Amino acid sequence: MINELSRPAPVAYLRRTRTPIALAQGDGIGPEITQAVLHILDAAQAQVSFTPVKIGLESYNAGASNGIAPEAWEAIRSTGILLKGPVTTPQGGGFKSVNVTLRKALGLYANVRPVQSFAPYISTLHPEMNVVVIRENEEDVYAGIEHRQSEDVYQCLKLITRPGCERIVRYAFEYAKQNGRKKVTCMTKDNIMKMTDGLFHRVFDEIGADYPQIQKEHMIIDIGMAKVATQPERFDVIVTPNLYGDILSDVVAEISGSVGLAPSANIGNEMSVFEAIHGSAPDIAGKGIANPSGMLLASTMMLQHIGQSETASLIHNAWLRTIEDGQQTGDLTQTNPLSTMEFARAVCDRLGEMPRRLPAAIYPADAKPIKVETKPVSGIPPRRNLEGVDIFISSRMQPMDLAKRLQTIVPQGSELKMISNRGVVVWPSGLPETHLVDHYRCRFTSKSASQLWVVNLLIALNRIQLDVIKTENLYAFDGKMAYSAGQGQ
Ligand code: NAD
Question: Is the pTM of this model over 0.70?
Answer without folding.
Answer: yes
